[in-house]
Amino acid sequence: MEQTVQQAVDIKQLLTKRPLIISGPCSAETEEQVMQTAIRLAATGKVDIMRAGIWKPRTRPGSFEGVGTKGLPWLQQARKTTGLPVAVEVATGKQVEDALHFGVDVLWIGARTTVNPFSVQDVADALKGVDVPVLIKNPINPDLELWIGAVERVAKAGIQNIGLIHRGFSSYGNTEYRNAPMWHLAIEMKRRNPGMLMINDPSHICGRRDILSAVAQKAIDLDFDGLIIESHIDPDNAWSDAKQQITPERLAEMLNGIKWRREDINSEELHAQMEKMRSQINHLDDELMQLLGQRMKVAEQIGQYKKDNNITILQTNRWNEILERAFVKGEQLGLGKEFITKYFDAVHMESINHQNKIMNS
Ligand code: PEP
Ligand code: MN
Q1: What is the tally of structural domains in the chain?
Q2: How far is the CA of 105 from the centre of ligand 1 (A)?
C-alpha cells in the first residue's frame, strides 16, 4: 500500500516537467518488443513516460486489436528494468482495474472512448477512490463539449490529476493529415481549463512520419506542455499504425531539432520586446473594432435606404464584387484567400443582422 502512495507522488511530480515527453509503441506486441523499445527509449534520455496500447480500439474489425491483459506484465518488467513509468489506454472499467493491478502509472482515455459518455462513465466509475493520473484525448469528432464532459466525469470520480491530449479530429475527405489538428479547438480547450496539462499527439494527427516534426514544433510554439509520440523498434513492421511510428533514435533526433521556445522567453529583454509588440497588437485590434463598428453604422444606413425604397437585403452581385475586391487587396497585403473568405463571411453576416434589425423595425 505504502509503495503505491510513494509511486503516485513521484508520477505527479514527473507530470509537472516541461516539456513532458511520452513515447512508446502504438501497441505492445511481444515481450521482447516492449523490453527493447523501453531500453532504447530510456537510452535517449529524453523520454519521461513510456506509452503502449494493450487494448486497441480499431476503427475496422480485423486489424490487430491488442495483446490484452497478458501484455501488462511485460510493461511491468520494462518499467522495472528501465525505471520508465508506463502509460496505457483504457476504455472500460475492467481495463482500468487490470491496468492498476499491474501497477500502470498513468492511464489515458482514447479518442474513440471520449466520444461515448457511457464508456467514459464506466471508466470513471472504476476510478472512484483511486489516485492515478488520467490523460483524456480529444474525441474523434470536433466537439469540445464531449471532451469537457469526459473531463467532468473523471473529475467527479475524484481524480485530481487530469491532463489533456490533443490528437486531432476526424474530417471526411481530409488528405494532408490523418486527423485534422483544428488547433483552435485545442487552444479553446486550454483556455477553458487553465493550468491543466495539455500535450500534443503529432503521431495520430499526421498518420505519417514526414510531417511529425512540423506538427510537434507547432504544438510547442502554441505553448503545449509536451508531446506524446509513437515509437517502435521496427516501425515499418509495427502491428498497428506502422506509417506513423519512428525509432527511439529518430525520436531523439527529432526532439533535438525542436526549438523549445518556452525557455527562450525567460530573459527580461525578450519579455519587454514581447510586451511592446503585444501592446501594438492590442492597439491595432482596438482600431479594427472601431472601424468594424463604423462599417456596421454605414450598413444600417443602407438598410434604412433599402427599406425606404423597398429593396431586398442581399444582392448577390454586390457581395461577389466585395469578395473579388478583397481577394485582390488581400493578396497584395499577404492575406490568404481562406482567411479573407472567412473574415468577410463573418462581417457580412453581422452586416445583414444590423440591416435586418433596421428593415424590420
Ligand atoms: C493510440 O494512442 O494508439 C490511439 C488509439 O490513439 P487515438 O485514441 O488518438 O486514436
Ligand atoms: Mn496508434
Answers
A1: 2
A2: 18
All cell numbers assigned to 66: 491488442
Domain boundary among the residues 234, 257, 280 is at: 257
What is the pLDDT averaged over residues 59-81?
Answer: 94
Per-residue pLDDT reduced to its tens digit, 107-154:
999 999 999 999 999 999 999 999 999 999 999 999 999 999 999 999
User: Do 56 and 128 belong to one domain?
Assistant: yes
110 Cβ inside 6 Å of ligand 1: yes
Same domain? For 110 and 249 the reply is: yes
- The answer, as to whether pTM is greater than 0.85, is no
**Does position 265 have pLDDT exceeding 70, yes or no?**
no
Is residue 262, in this structure, part of any structural domain at all?
Answer: no
What are 339-347's contacts with CB under 8 Å, separation 24+?
Answer: 347/292, 347/295
C-alpha distance across the termini of the chain, in Å:
72
CA of 241, nearest ligand number: 2
Look up the domain containing 99 and give its range.
Answer: 2-257
Q: Whose CA is nearest to atom 4 of ligand 1?
A: 110
Residue 263 lies in a domain: no
Q: What is the pLDDT of residues 2-33, one digit of tens each?
A: 344 445 448 999 999 999 999 999 999 999 99
